[in-house]
Known about the structure:
- The chain is α/β, with parallel strands linked by helices.
- Among the domains are: about 40-130, no CATH class; about 160-445, TIM Barrel (Alpha-Beta Barrel), CATH 3.20.20.440.
- The protein has helices at about 15-40, 45-50, 65-75, 85-90, 100-110, 120-150, 170-180, 215-235, 250-260, 270-275, 280-295, 305-310, 315-335, 355-370, 390-405, 425-440, 455-475, 485-490, 520-535; strands spanning about 40, 160-165, 185-190, 240-245, 265, 300, 340, 345, 375-380, 410, 510-515.
- The strands form two sheets. A nine-stranded parallel beta sheet has the order 7-6-5-4-3-2-10-9-8.
- It is globular, with a radius of gyration of 23 Å.
- The two termini are about 35 Å apart.
Amino acid sequence: xxxxxxxxxxxxxxxxxxxxxxxxxxxxxxxxxxxxxxxxxxxxxxxxxxxxxxxxxxxxxxxxxxxxxxxxxxxxxxxxxxxxxxxxxxxxxxxxxxxxxxxxxxxxxxxxxxxxxxxxxxxxxxxxxxxxxxxxxxxxxxxxxxxxxxxxxxxxxxxxxxxxxxxxxxxxxxxxxxxxxxxxxxxxxxxxxxxxxxxxxxxxxxxxxxxxxxxxxxxxxxxxxxxxxxxxxxxxxxxxxxxxxxxxxxxxxxxxxxxxxxxxxxxxxxxxxxxxxxxxxxxxxxxxxxxxxxxxxxxxxxxxxxxxxxxxxxxxxxxxxxxxxxxxxxxxxxxxxxxxxxxxxxxxxxxxxxxxxxxxxxxxxxxxxxxxxxxxxxxxxxxxxxxxxxxxxxxxxxxxxxxxxxxxxxxxxxxxxxxxxxxxxxxxxxxxxxxxxxxxxxxxxxxxxxxxxxxxxxxxxxxxxxxxxxxxxxxxxxxxxxxxxxxxxxxxxxxxxxxxxxxxxxxxxxxxxxxxxxxxxxxxxxxxxxxxxxxxxxxxxxxxxxxxxxxxxxxxx
Length: 557
């Protein structure tokens, strides 16, 4: 499946040299972070590996077996060698018949782990078990492709993206199906408040989430099955989205792949900035999660829109562009193809600012031109949303128009009461009517919309790009006394979203471990091998289509 931009050609002209410079700087800034991620592991990466190896379920108090096993290994020998070798050594020597029994023994304190034992046989067993998990990811990806071919895909772009989140999965299901019947192409089940800070994944179906529904494997399964039924009814595939962020990012990514979710919220810095999760923990976890998403054929949605809720959307526009470039680098390094890069943007300029809509168009067009084959996700106004029913719906209408005019691939439905715990059903219906009207009335508008080369929109877009390049240059030269990678130093300085997050602080730092020479993880090996094989077999998937036109006059870009 390949999703390309709805714009047939770039609507604005950018200097190719400046664009190339921006991407080169993003790589310069991103490479030390990737190296850092390669040298570390986390409790979440190790737990995700065990889930791929087939370990599931929880004890009578709801503590997952993967947590019991990883915590026991960490307590005895640390995680420098990973969890697989010490765990499967206990199975290889006959201490336990399988992972579940071993985890139960670990929970009761009746087994100890050490680096000795039948290492070679342990590695073979680990590889065998994890391979089954990888096979499941591959099978669910093929299943998606075959199902879309059978029932048909959404008939047009942008895809209409609507949030459903009551706290009760059994209530979410009928609301999600009703939303799909009313025109939604993507159903996003937002997570319960605070789940991103839980260092475990709840088990089973849940009914008591607050401002959202817990992300669990069973909840994923139930909603996917319901939307498959609705897809057959409607004759078009309805996609399912959840959140792979927070302290359990790798685990949720693995569960999403195994249950055939289609999109996952997965930003490189969101957890750092807005949940105060340790930066090293986040970058290690996000790389593994993105490798899983790549193999599972899942589209990621990044979180640049959040920066504009804490910083001014005009003054900080270039920080969004920088984050998009970094997210692109990290995503592609992890094996994601262009059609999987749902880079974020947001309609968050104060409507009272003169020419606010033209500024919104400039920022959105800059993103579309820089990333022509990415299904960009435009986020609706929230910061300046009003309780005035007429003004609020008009603002959402402008947002819908901006998404259509600039060829966004994913349009999140804005609604009056989305800041209320659960949006009113009546407002959801009105919001979908708003979307349908704009998409129908302005269908094909990109064919006629061509902002002039030296007009306000194009000039503003080039200004933001220049500011983004300048910021990337500053970040590349940023150092701190601790010797952290420049990006981590920049994050500590409050460069993004005005949030200062030092690398030696934040939640989850105690769950990070430096890999030693004995480190073994068959999931990482399989994902790295898959990425390399795919890049060799399909070089076109890693080649970027030209997204810029040469500037007609030197010095104007």
